[in-house]
Design brief:
alpha+beta; Nuclear Transport Factor 2, Chain: A; 4 strands
């Protein structure tokens, strides 16, 4: 079991290096949504989270996230695109983005938090929900 975990960790780190999204938080989420729309779920998750070195410790959570995202097409139909609800600067180093990812039968709400410790924005948190409570908290 330890050997399998180690091999997966090496593959994750290798696959992640050099493929992380760069740019502003909105640019990174745009790339993420475009990859989701084209069906590249694993790439989308890996590329979004690879800039955050803490994610190497959360491999199981990232795999679970990929599996959950893969189920959305089965539940809600074909992916159609996305709309931003808000891009909100919380501080000079924290930005919150809320967006709706549209499917044929029901939307999914995404909420992202990006952190800029020095010069580069990195994803700190990203969650989705098929309920609308993530849209509360801003009047943008």
């Amino acid at each position: 079991m330890k050997k399998i975990f180690f091999m997966f960790l090496v593959v994750f780190i290798t696959a992640s290096s050099g493929f992380s999204y760069e740019g502003t938080p909105k640019e990174q989420t745009e790339l993420f949504f475009n990859e989701l729309l084209s069906g590249k779920i694993n790439n989308a998750v890996d590329n979004l989270y690879s800039s955050n070195t803490l994610m190497g410790q959360k491999i199981q959570q990232l795999e679970a996230l990929k599996q959950q995202i893969a189920m959305l097409d089965k539940l809600y139909g074909k992916a159609l695109g996305h709309e931003y609800y808000c891009v909100e600067k919380k501080t000079d180093s924290v930005v919150r983005i809320a967006a709706v990812f549209k499917y044929e039968f029901h939307p999914v709400v995404w909420e992202f938090y990006f952190y800029k410790p020095s010069k580069k924005w990195i994803i700190s948190q990203g969650v989705f929900n098929d309920q609308f409570e993530l849209l509360s908290g801003s009047d943008d």
